[in-house]
Amino acid sequence: MLVTGKQILDKAHKEGYAVGAFNINNMEILQAIIEAAEEERSPVIIQTSEGAIKYAGIDYIKAMVYVAAQKASVPVALHLDHGTTYETIISCIRNGYTSVMIDGSHHPLEENIAVTNEIIKIAHACGVSVEAELGRLGGVEDNISVDEKDARLTHPDEAVKFVKETGVDSLAIAIGTAHGKYKGEPKLDFERLDTIKKLLNMPIVLHGASGVPEDAIKKAVSLGINKINIDTDIRIAFTEGVKSVIVNKPEEYDPRKVLAPAKEEMKKVVKAKMQLFGCSGRA
Ligand code: PH4
Ligand code: ZN
After folding, report:
1. Rg (Cα) of the chain, in Å, rounded?
2. Catalytic residue numbers?
3. Position 150 confidence tier, pLDDT thresholds 50, 70, 90
4. Closest residue (by CA) to atom 17 of ligand 1?
């Protein structure tokens, strides 16, 4: 069944677990995630970046996710990940997304509040949930000093002001994770997370969670993370699955047989994440 992001995340916040938000770019990725959610009896957030929309087309994405959600017996939300332009966000609302992210994290605080409020006014009037971001995630390739990295992390007082002046449904915070493949081991600022969660008492989002060690994820969930974004780990599973066929059966030319192991690999990854995040059995 199709639900809003808020319906899924308010329950996770109340009951103290996190829900996986998995990025999709094509049908096989979507099917792998939905099958995993059904088998785990888990709520799930299907999300698409602006890049995914450009790649697949918003009409294809909407049609695929709506079919999947209508057939599914678990709650499914369709979410825009890192929306940056007014046009994309409005287009997602018009196309039936049940949740959108307005990423104003690159703006100064007041401007981030202003662009977030502009989206919230429209989204909430349409019954669509809104995620915003405060603080800057590192790129894994970023060659910046420790002080500079610290300065990018979410400031608790700013988070309080941001939520008070926007009324956003969930907030993505920067506590040391980065998008993409990590070179070293990420160090998460758990004290900062604990402080922010206690001050805000609302659903908190972690981006860049692929490659973060399991014990760090468990601790982050125990301290109040309720939505965890995973993309890179699914990309790796997909590519490894395809590679295994290309390498082991170079004579294979049926796309269905090339993609079947990729789907199985992705499904395994998603199921393991659901168990780790604590959303298995919560549907
Ligand atoms: N995301 C995924 C962003 C994907 O433009 P694009 O399609 O490459 O964007 O928002 C995450 O937080 C996932 O982080 P991960 O890559 O560490 O899993
Ligand atoms: Zn992200």
Report:
1. 18
2. 81
3. confident
4. 208
List the residue whose alpha carbon is closest to atom 5 of ligand 1. Answer: 51
Amino acid (one-letter) located at 106 = H
* Contact criterion met (CB below 8 Å) for 45 and 22: yes
Residue type, 228: I
Under a CB-based contact definition with an 8 Å cutoff, are residues 276 and 259 in contact?
no
Among the listed residues 213, 169, 190, the one whose alpha carbon sits nearest the alpha carbon of residue 45? 169
Mutate which of 24, 47, 81 for ligand 1? The one with the most ligand atoms within 8 Å of its CB, which is 81
Tell me the per-residue pLDDT of 220-229, one tens digit each, with 9 for 90 and over: 999 999 999 9
Please name the residue whose Cα sits nearest to atom 4 of ligand 1: 49
Around ion ligand 2, residues with a beta carbon closer than 5 Å are: 207
The pTM of the whole model exceeds 0.90: yes
Q: Please check whether the domain covering 5-231+266-277 is classified as CATH 3.20.20.70.
A: yes
